[in-house]
Amino acid sequence: MTVSAPASSAIRYRLARPGEEEGLGRLAAESFGDYPFFSFALKEPFDSYQKYLDYMTRLHRMLIKAYIKKQVCLVGVSDCTVVSVALLHDPRSRDIDVTDYLLAGGLGLVRGVGLRRLLAFFDISEAAQSACTAKHPDAWYVELLAVDTQLKGRGLGGKMIHDCVEPYVRGHDGRSLSLITNTEQNRRFYTSKGFTEFSESTLSFRGQTIGNWSFFKQLEI
Hints:
The protein is of the alpha+beta class. The protein has one domain: Gcn5-related N-acetyltransferase (GNAT) (Aminopeptidase). It is 44% helix and 27% strand. An eight-stranded mixed β-sheet has the order 1-2-3-4-5-6-8-7, with helices on both faces. A hairpin with a 2-residue loop joins strand 3 (72-78) and strand 4. Helix 1 (21-32) crosses helix 3. The longest helix has 22 residues, at 49-70. It is globular. The model is unreliable at 1-8 (pLDDT under 50). Residues 137-203 form the N-acetyltransferase domain. One of its GO terms (molecular function) is acyltransferase activity, transferring groups other than amino-acyl groups.
């Protein structure tokens, strides 16, 4: 699959490969930077943004490694450089569990934030996804969609949804997508891409709260 990229090159989409986790983890970490879902629970222990970013890279590297092995990790490549990444959960496949995350390097994530905070973050993640799991259990869940920070604002996220994620899901007998977001900007973005908001909630951690919105899209076949 290819699409004309804003930078006058073409984007080719493919499955991520083992060994690409480090670069993809860094791309995702930089893309999500101060994204509230991560920062409100994980940023406080770090005395510099760089240390927090390094931790976020390790976190996303673990997540991506587990998805490459057990679920679906798609990347967009332009001029031999990965510019976007998406993680998809196929509802027909076994869920990624704690063992999978440990094998992907999850135990090392305790260093930096502590076990209690890390376990609380995983609990928050589960709570955030609960509406999608309960109301649309047969939908493919978009765990992550990230774009190279230097290319944000050029439509790469929307193109990846339209030209990669949706065709991939349809090609594997999927009929719908679900996801969550935690910012007003992303609410507008996903609404503009044909998603319907079906649940609103609040996530809390040590006196801090953030909004959590769940979205669903029925795919045209």
